[in-house]
Structures are given as C-alpha cells and as structure tokens.
C-alpha cells in the first residue's frame, strides 16, 4: 500500500472554509477504485493546519495524480495556503488496511 500524509498550512482567512473547498476533491478521490482511504484532520494546536492521511493500493497513486480532480485541486489550493505542504510518502509492503494496536487492546 502507498501511504501518504500531508500537512497543509492554510492562511487564517481560509481555515474555516478549507474543508468545504476540498470537499469535491475529497469525494472524487474516495470514489477512485484504488483509493483505500482519504481522511482529513485539523490540528488541535494550530487551527490553520490540516493533515491529510491517504492510502492507495500499490498501483493507485499514479492514476490519482493523473486524474482531473487532482489537477484541479492543485490549481485551487495554492491561494488558500500559507506555505508549501509537507509530505511523507511511503510504501508499506503486504498491507492494505490499518492494523490493530498491540499495546492497547480492548476486549
């Protein structure tokens, strides 16, 4: 699986509108056949920081980046951002889903 985590720092005047602005992009990405998840979170320490955690089957990231909705998002996002996003992009061999936490088990 390809796991991608991106931190987006928005301009303060865009922070309350960010999730609405990326709603179509989010829905279109979640509908991609090779998308495993595409989840947004907002920092509890910085209201202008959003974290996107996304995952794709091994051959799914290429079509995602080549999609019309991705290209449109790359055009739409910059005016709302305060800086270039930070990203972690890695491949996790043999996995396509979340694992259970071994240190904390709920029966």
Descriptive notes:
The model has no long low-confidence stretch (mean pLDDT 96). The chain has 4 helices and 4 strands, in the order βααββααβ. It is an alpha+beta fold and 107 residues long. The longest helix is centred in the C-terminal third of the chain and has 9 residues, at 68-76. 25% of the residues lie in helices and 28% in strands. Strand 2 (35-42) and strand 3 (49-56) form a beta hairpin. Strands 2-3-1-4 form a 4-stranded antiparallel beta sheet, with helices on one face. Helix 2 runs antiparallel to helix 4. It has helices at 18-21, 23-30, 61-66, 68-76, and strands at 2-9, 35-42, 49-56, 86-91.
Strand coverage percent:
25-35%
Largest sheet data: 4 strands, antiparallel
Number of helices: 4
Structural class: alpha+beta
- How many strand segments? 4
Shape by Cα distribution: globular
The radius of gyration over CA amounts to 15 Å
- Uncertain stretches: none
Average pLDDT? 96
H/E element string? EHHEEHHE
